[in-house]
Every structure is written in C-alpha cells, then in structure tokens.
Amino acid sequence: MLTLDAVSLFYGPIQAVSEATITVGEGQVVAIVGANGAGKSTLLKAIAGLALPRSGQIRFRGEDITQLAAHKRVKAGIALSPEGRQVFPDQSVRDNLELGAYSRKLSTVDLTRAIDAQFDMFPRLAERRSQPAVTLSGGEQQMLAIARALMGEPKLLLMDEPSLGLAPLIIKEIFATIRRLRDAGMTILLVEQMANLALAVADRAYVLETGRIVLSGTGQEMLQNARVRAAYLGGGH
Ligand SMILES: Nc1ncnc2c1ncn2[C@@H]1O[C@H](COP(=O)(O)OP(=O)(O)OP(=O)(O)O)[C@@H](O)[C@H]1O
Ligand SMILES: [Mg+2]
C-alpha cells in the first residue's frame, strides 16, 4: 500500500531523516519506534505531504505521491492523527468530527451516519458530543483526534504518538482501539515511544535512530531483539 524508498528530509541544513526505506502492506499495522528527535514525526509528515523530501520516493497504492499536495493525499486516503492531539478546541466534539469529513462532501444523512459510526466506536465521545473539545480530558481528546482522522474514511491511518501524556489505563484503551481498527482491516503506520505496546500490536516494525532505520522485522522479532530491549524496553522486561 505504501513504500518509502530512500527518503531523506532536511530542516534547512539539518538532516532529520536519512534514506529511510519502509514498506507498509495492506491491512498491516507497522510501527516506527525511536527516541526523541529520531525523525519519527518528520517521516509521518512526509507521508502526509506536510514536509517534502529532498530525495527519495514515496508511493501510495502504485502512485508516486512524493510531491503531491497534502489535501490531495487526504483525498487519496491518507489520514494523519497528529502528535499532541490537535483538535479544534472551541468546536464541539461533533463539529470536530464533521471537519474530519470535509474533503468527502457528504450529504447530511451520510454525514450523520459517519459521525454515528464514530460514536459507536468511541461511546465516550457520544456522551460529550456537544461539549467544546477543549473541555475533554487528554485521553478523550486523543480519541477525538483518532475519530476525526477516521471520518475521512482513510485507507491508511498515520498515528503519531497516540499514547503521549496519557495515563496507563487510557493508553490501554487507545491500544485496544488500534487492535479493533486492525481487526476491521485498517492499514496503520504507528509512531510510538511506548515501544513495548507498539511492537506487541505491530505486524512489522522499524527502529529509527537519528534519522536512520537501523533495524526492522516483525513486531515479535523486535520485542525479542537485544538491542531494542536495551534501548527501548527498559533493559528487558
Ligand atoms: N520545524 C523544524 N525546524 C527545524 N528542525 C526541526 C523541525 N521539526 C523537527 N526538527 C528537528 O528534526 C529532528 C527530528 O524531529 P522529529 O519531530 O521528526 O522527531 P521525533 O522522532 O518525532 O521526536 P519526538 O519523539 O520527540 O516526537 C529533530 O532533531 C528536530 O529538532
Ligand atoms: Mg514526534
């Protein structure tokens, strides 16, 4: 579904990603793990069209999208649930969801149906549908950010640190949601610092260190890898 071939990205003179090659198959959950500043968000931005590679190629469902505008990628089926759960604070939960379907130009009936589907998936959001997003808890805002991304009916969901800043119980819920999406056939590229949880849910995983992919394999292989355990799993729990 998605391939990155030797993709490099720079911020001015600073290289953030060096010749990253990544493959995501249809229906797979693929995880990218790495420390702060490794280039994980930059990679997702490149796939969403929010940062342009200096070199390399990005292909999505057979098409070269390396230079495609971000809004055209949304139309093609790529959705980003960004780092730091960027919901529209003053808009209600329902309006946030509606904005997520903006590019689909749905009829009122279809829009209501699509919103109700998200409320089925996230009952807490249903209870809070009229509240401004800013009044939601951190975990609820993360759910809203995911639900809003899903409103575009993406074929590929990019998730940037969905667990960031959340309590353990909420993190469990978020990962249960990721599993449900996977079971429903969604293709997900997941960036996480909670490496143990991400690797446990991932079909494949890549380890990114200072912009370079240094390891890849199945989620299970990465969980058992000595280097991964030492660097990202707190020395082998
Ligand atoms: N807008 C920017 N301008 C300049 N440098 C940037 C910019 N955004 C990111 N960088 C730099 O690029 C590198 C990669 O950043 P990126 O946000 O991709 O890392 P990350 O792996 O997502 O980190 P974190 O786990 O902290 O979210 C870092 O060194 C960062 O300082
Ligand atoms: Mg990041």
From TrEMBL:
GO terms for molecular function: ATP binding; ATP hydrolysis activity; branched-chain amino acid transmembrane transporter activity. It holds the Pfam family ABC_tran. Residues 2-235 form the ABC transporter domain. Coiled coil: none annotated. One of its GO terms (biological process) is L-amino acid transport. Keywords: Amino-acid transport, ATP-binding, Nucleotide-binding, Transport. InterPro entries: AAA+_ATPase (IPR003593), ABC_transporter-like_ATP-bd (IPR003439), ABC_transporter-like_CS (IPR017871), BCAA_Transport_ATP-bd_LivF (IPR052156), P-loop_NTPase (IPR027417). This is ABC transporter ATP-binding protein. It comes from Phreatobacter stygius.
